Amino acid sequence: MDAEDLRRAVTRIAHEIVEHNQGLEGVVLIGLQTGGVPLAGRLADALRRVEGVDVPIGTLDVAFYRDDIGLRPVLPEAVTDIPFDLTGGAVVLVDDVLFTGRTVRAALDALNDYGRPRSVQLAVMIDRGHRELPIRPDYIGKNLPTRRDEMVDVTAEGVDVGTMQKRGGG
Amino acid sequence: MKHLLSIADLGADGVEEVLRLTESFVEVSARAIPRVPALRGKTVVSLFYEDSTRTRLSFETAAKRLTADTMNFSVSSSSVNKGESVRDTVLTIAAMGVDAIVVRHGSAGVPWQVARWTDAAVINAGDGWHEHPTQALLDCYTIRERRGSLAGLRIAIVGDVKHSRVARSNVLAFSMLGAEVTLVAPPTLLPPSLAGWPVAVSHDLDGCLAKADVVYLLRMQRERQTEALLPSLREYTTLYGLTKDRARLLGEDALVMHPGPMNRGVEIAAEVADLPSAVITRQVANGVAVRMAVLFLILGSRGDLGG
After folding, report:
1. Which CATH number is associated with domain B133-283?
2. Closest CB from A75, A109, A110 relative to B303
3. Predicted-complex ipTM score
């Protein structure tokens, strides 16, 4: 995927969010630290172009909710910032890459502590497979079959697949 | 980081790491439900051989907000009264399967010793006149929260430096972060030697106040008067107390800090403790977040820190 493919995928996902929620009433975007945060910003821009509405954006760091605390170094990358009540809202979790599903599991737990949304949806740019939990995305930029030991990197310029084994979650 | 025994062991990088993580726990503490499941299944025991209100409660609150289990040991209602040694008490507690022991003791070095007797992580909550590392960390965080950075700040530490573990930890931590520290005290309340301390010394509080960014008042321990270190508490207040008149000498942005418990009317006037520049209750609030960060670093993240 190059920068142009990414832009088109973001625009398509924005349309799908509007369609799925029959508008943007109550819709909020929560970007997962760190990869999901810039993507949530781009999605918000696209939603503004499509519907002319500014949706609230928050950021969430799931470090304190991970299930591998104590097994490997787990430190938050940034401070969580959700400056609004989620109760009754339609939360769209945004991340760059969906891998094992454990980050999303942790994010669902974390959201509980901020209120009770009427629904939680998941938007990811890349679904690379290898799920370890019963979690599926509602909006996908691209399905990208990978090997377990590969690494997927999403930037503003595009998507790279490397072979370094570095991240455990995803 | 396996233990937190002193600021000296933690080092400048360790101090930075704790302060950075504290920000996340300040956010957690501000939530409607101020609790995260990070230390589920871990047990933290506090072993206090000295009286304490805020430090013990603060550690307990911190552990609970991380969903750890807490146990409390207070000397007055324990087998210590039957003559049990510190070592046997520690081994007994450790045998129950605890992950961290928070230790306060009247003698310097006890936490260090406890760390050698047990596999549990040990956190120093104050040992004799030696150190009180989490107090220094919460003080650094509070100053940073107000002033952005400690680099280049002029900090006056006023009062009974000699008997103060808070002063020892803070001198180290403040200077690690780039502040210039001045000790202001009568000669009888300074340590016999300050060799190796990165500080200046003054006996003139009025002269220090106008240029100080932070005035850190230490608790005047009343028993010092009976030890003939002070002519009288009233004379101490006259020369070294932050009275209402003296507080007017302070700069507009200057902070007034105190580790508590305060003796209003001795080292700090009652009205001064309630001024907006006094961040004393903010210190207490930040104390919980700092201790959450310490517990998480030691028990949760297996982060690779000094110490």
Report:
1. 3.40.50.1370
2. A75
3. 0.87
